[in-house]
Design goal:
about 20% helix, five-stranded antiparallel beta sheet, about 80 residues
């Protein structure tokens, strides 16, 4: 399952980030803490395929579908 498929208010553990992402995007996600084993929670799903609002640790992020669909997770 991908991060894009996580439902509102659901938590999941990151399995992997697609290494074929643009190197700058892959590196930035790594710097922000998107790494295997991290717990992430979907705080809000925006309407009309808008960005996901996610919590990773104490930080809130917003990711668009093109990136969130390339992060593999499993439900917590």
């Amino acid at each position: 399952m991908t991060l894009w498929e996580v439902r509102n208010k659901q938590s999941a553990h990151i399995e992997s980030v697609d290494p074929t992402l643009l190197p700058a995007v892959f590196q930035r996600l790594n710097e922000m803490g998107f790494a295997a084993g991290q717990l992430i929670r979907c705080l809000r799903r925006s309407p009309m395929k808008g960005p996901l609002v996610l919590q990773l640790g104490d930080t809130v992020y917003s990711l668009e579908q093109s990136i969130a669909s390339r992060i593999n997770v499993h439900p917590a």
